[in-house]
Amino acid sequence: MKENSEEIMLDLLYKQAVYGLSEEETKHLSTLENKIPNLDSFEMTAAAIAMIDLKTDAELPAGLRARILADAEEYFSTGDASAQVPAALEAPTREFTFVESKARRSIWPWLGWAVAAAACVALAVNLYWTRTPSEIVENPTPTPAQEEKLSPAQKRQRLLESPAQLIVVKWGKGYVEEIGNVTGDVVWSDVNQEGYVRLNGLPVNDPDKETYQLWIFDESQDAKTPIDGGTFNIDTGGEVIIPINAGLKARNPKMFAVTIEKPGGVVVSKQEKVAAVAKRET
């Protein structure tokens, strides 16, 4: 009769944990709780059964698994011999085999501890695999900043593919005789205040002696004081793509120019050495 009551109580505890109980079932469970000892064991059993379907696609690290099993063995070794954790728990499954003793002792106390121990292992697995990336030292998840690290060429292409209205003008020869034809273009967005210079044909410069500097001639600035677009150096032949670093907000640029200046650039250019010009057609 006692074992039958225990089975009913276990069913009710499981149902309460997973689905909830009706008013009549709640009253029945309350009656059984007053009659049956070792209530904590039954509550742990019900919670363990509710968790037994927990799955994970990755294997629990050996160190964590060993610590869990060691703590479980130490904890249960102080109890009654019937409550010892079986060796089979080291590889917990959903099926348990019980051997009935000669004294036909009730299997329910042992079941309560064994399934609860299995739940501890399952809970540890769940906690390990649901940690945030900042808690995991090995193989951290890449941050958005790392994922978005693009080259100037990739950023230029992304701007070209964006829905923003763009200004695109081609480079031409400047006013320095020793510099031949310069090709490429400028891509600029007023809305994003973002742009890129693509150049081919500028000679390699010595940064200790001179630097190239970009200038933006827009409708709000006097032609003698264009907006500084940043300095750059050419260290190899071929095409280069350089992000525009405007010192002020540029509005509807009409022309872009590259000058040769002293190392570090200047605040206001005398425009004596204009290496390349990109002018919008009116």
Please explain how this structure is put together.
This protein is of the alpha+beta class and 282 residues long. The protein has 2 domains: 37-135, no CATH class; 152-279, Immunoglobulin-like, CATH 2.60.40. Helix content is 33%, strand content 18%. The protein is built from 7 helices and 9 strands; from the N terminus they run H-H-H-H-H-H-H-E-E-E-E-E-E-E-E-E. The chain has helices at 2-18, 23-35, 39-51, 62-76, 108-129, 144-147, 152-161; strands at residues 167-170, 172-173, 183-189, 194-200, 211-217, 227-232, 240-243, 255-261, 274-279. A 5-stranded antiparallel sheet has the order 2-9-8-5-6, with no helix packed on it. It has a 4-stranded antiparallel sheet with strand order 1-3-4-7, with helices on one face. Strand 3 and strand 4 form a beta hairpin. Helix 1 (2-18) packs across helix 2 (23-35), helix 1 (2-18) crosses helix 3 and helix 3 (39-51) crosses helix 5. It is elongated, with a radius of gyration of 38 Å. It starts with a helix and ends with a strand. Residues 80-108 have low confidence and may be disordered.
